[in-house]
Design brief:
By secondary structure, this protein is an alpha+beta fold. Helix content is 31%, strand content 26%.
Length: 186
């Protein structure tokens, strides 16, 4: 879990909300590393993107536009752009922009899916903020890879009944034929 602690040390002075995302968020929830990770992502709210850029002063930033990296100047990034990469020496950080409105987190792919902000994240035993696994899994619905399915299988026993219920309802709205639906009944 060393990469998560390194990011925590890097981000602990950042004044806005941020969370470890992706597979590492699932491992933080479980409490141990369940698989190898090739990268680390954090999530922030879209409104905080320029604050992050100021906080990581001196880093090189790129935005992902239609699957290609482009230099990110100081423009405010709007949807569909949701991914930023920051680099400084040997550090590389993927930043995922999340939507919010009126105190609610909105799923950027389907605004019918939302949660109160305080239900989107949690903290590890060591104080590291992470995106709740049932939210992470929602993002993994698109182009589900083997490692995504393994994350689902690994974290499912650690999800509360209400979290599984919310995830199932979200899948029914957004991806009603997804294979995970059958696993959420038991």
């Amino acid at each position: 879990m060393k990469p998560c602690m390194e990011i925590y040390q890097l981000m602990k002075g950042f004044s806005e909300k941020w969370f470890i995302a992706g597979g590492w968020a699932i491992d933080l929830h479980i409490g141990n590393e369940t698989r190898l990770h090739s990268d680390i992502e954090i999530a922030i709210f879209r409104k905080d993107q320029l604050t992050l850029k100021t906080y990581l002063q001196g880093w090189a930033f790129k935005k992902v536009v239609h699957g290609e990296f482009q230099t990110w100047e100081n423009e405010y990034l709007k949807l569909p752009i949701h991914e930023i990469h920051a680099q400084l020496n040997n550090w590389e950080l993927e930043v995922l922009l999340n939507e919010m409105c009126w105190g609610k987190w909105l799923f950027r792919r389907d605004s019918r899916i939302f949660l109160p902000i305080n239900e989107v994240y949690n903290y590890s035993k060591t104080g590291i903020p992470y995106l709740n696994p049932f939210v992470v899994l929602l993002f993994k619905l698109k182009n589900t890879r083997q490692k995504d399915h393994q994350d689902f299988i690994n974290v499912k026993p650690f999800l509360a009944y209400e979290e599984k219920k919310w995830l199932k309802e979200a899948i029914l709205v957004h991806a009603p034929t997804h294979q995970w639906l059958g696993y959420l009944d038991n």
